[in-house]
Amino acid sequence: MGLGLIVFFAVAAYIWRVDILRTWLDPKQPFQTYVPPPAPNYETPSAWALIPQNPAAWSASDPPADVFFVHPTTFDGGRNWNGPINDRRSAKLLTDVMLPNYAGPFQRVGRVFAPRYRQASLYAFLTNKEDAQEARRFAYSDVRRAFETFLRDTDGRPIIIAGVEQGGALAARLLDDVVAHDPKLIARLAAAYLIDTIVPAANYVPASPIPACTARGQARCILAWVQPTDASRADRFEKHALVWSNAGQLEDLRTRAPLCVNPVLGMVSDTLAPVRLNLGATNASGLEWGVRPAFMPHQVSAQCQGGFLNASTPSSPTFKQSGSWTDRLKAPPFNLFYADEEADAKARITTLTGSAGYMAPSPSLGASIAIAHAPIHRIP
Predict the structure, then answer these.
(1) Total domain count, the chain
(2) pTM, entire model
C-alpha cells in the first residue's frame, strides 16, 4: 500500500507539474504594488552581459557587423515578477549556458552587445493574467533603453538583432516599435533572428517593412521559429502564446498562424530539410566566450509544420533535454542549429554590405587629434 501511494503521488506530481510550478512560482502580489529591482544603467559595462571593450570605436580588424542579442529567460521567480540583473543563479545560467549556445553563433560575424535586463520571471509565461503581461511590458522598457544605447554606439554599422524565447519576443517588439519606422535602420539591418519565438506570420508578409526571409542570401528580413522540445514546453507555447500587437499590447495569438522560417534552409518553406543539410549542432555550455565549439554535423532534419519547427531526434545523447522542471521550460542547454545560424548570418551580412547604395562607415579614429589655432600671415 505504501509503495502504491508513493507511485501514485509521483505520477500525479508529474502530470500536474506545470500547475504545481505555477503555484510555487506565483509572486502572490499584484504587479501594481510590486516594487521592481533597481534599473540597469546602460552607460556602465556591468549592465551588459556582453559588450565590446570600446563600444563606440571599431577598427578594420573587427567583425563586419554589430549584434544586439536579447537573452532568454533565466530567472524562475517566486517573490519577484521581474528578476534583478545581479541574481546569481540566473546570471550563472546566462553566462554558462545561454550565451555560449545562442549568442555564440554571431560572435564571428559581429561585435556582440547583450544587455542584462529586468526579465519577466518564468511564471509570467505560465499564465496569461494581466499582472504577468505587465511584467513582460516592464522588461521591454529596459531592452528598449539598451537598444538606444546600442544604436548610439554603432551608428552607421551593419546590424543583426537576435533574441531567444522571451528575448525573441522582446526583439520582435523592437523591430515593430523602432526599426520598422526608421528607413535608415532598415537599411542597416542584415537580418533579425527570433529563435524559439512565436510571432504571427501575417505581420511579416513581403509587403511589410521587414518581411520574413524567403531566400538564404536575402538581407533585411526576419527568421523566426519555435521548436517545442517536450510536452511541457509545447503546452506553454500553445496555451500561453501571447504576441505583441502594433499598439504595444500583448494579445492572444488566437487563430493566426505562427511564422516558421526553417533555420537549415534559411527561408519560409514547408519542405523537409534532411539530416545531411544540418551544418552542425553543439552543446557549448561551459565554454568561455570567444571559444568556438566543436560541431556535430548531420544531427537533425527540420520541417515547418503548422507554424512549428519539427526536428528529428538527434543521434547524439548530448542533445537531450535534462534538469529540473523549471529548466525544461526554458531554452534548451544546446543549439541544434548553431552552425546553420552562423553560416546564415555570414551570408546575409555579405548580401547587405554588397548591395547597391550601401555606404560602409569608416573605422573609428584610434585617438583624437587636437587642432590648434594658427594665425595667417600675408606674404608681401
Answers:
(1) 1
(2) 0.89
